Amino acid sequence: PTPLLEPLFPPQPGASPGFVERVRQHKVRLEWVRAEPAGLRGAVRVLNLAYEKAVSVRYSLDGWASCAEAPAAYQPPGPPDGITDRFAFLLPLGAAAAAAEHTLEFAVRYRVAGAEYWDNNEGKNYRLRGRQRLPPGPGLPQDPDSSAWIHFI
């Protein structure tokens, strides 16, 4: 079975009512995340306070004993609201990150006009738990030949 990362928070915060207002109030908010074979992909929305800005994602797989940071890239065209910008990121985690015993935690950092803003999920960090995909259950149909060996003579 292949491992996957399971978000311990709603993975599409940008789809909830009042999202743009939360971005306006806090300056930076996670929009969505998706676990992929290459790692964790996501998008961040920031309030457009100045032309030059830097967005990154700080993450840890060991309870913050160590951490890494990945930059997020600006995604044109901007959202139609006219006051926010979207940045995309990919955390290149590899297979070890999705192991069942790991928990990935991350927070988003937005630096603009000499200030720094964080989205750390209201102080809880964004957390994803590694877990194994379950094999098909006994009630599900399986290929009868899936466990057969082929012998060549």
From TrEMBL:
InterPro entries hit by this protein: CBM21_dom, CBM21_dom_sf, PP1_regulatory_subunit_3
A single GO molecular function term of this UniProt record: glycogen binding
GO CC list: protein phosphatase type 1 complex
One of the Pfam families matching this protein, by short name: CBM_21
Residue span(s) of domain CBM21: 20-129
Domain of life: Eukaryota
GO BP, one annotated term: regulation of glycogen biosynthetic process
Classification via PROSITE patterns: CBM21
Protein name as catalogued: PPR3E phosphatase
Source organism (scientific name): Grallaria varia (variegated antpitta)
Taxon lineage: Eukaryota, Metazoa, Chordata, Craniata, Vertebrata
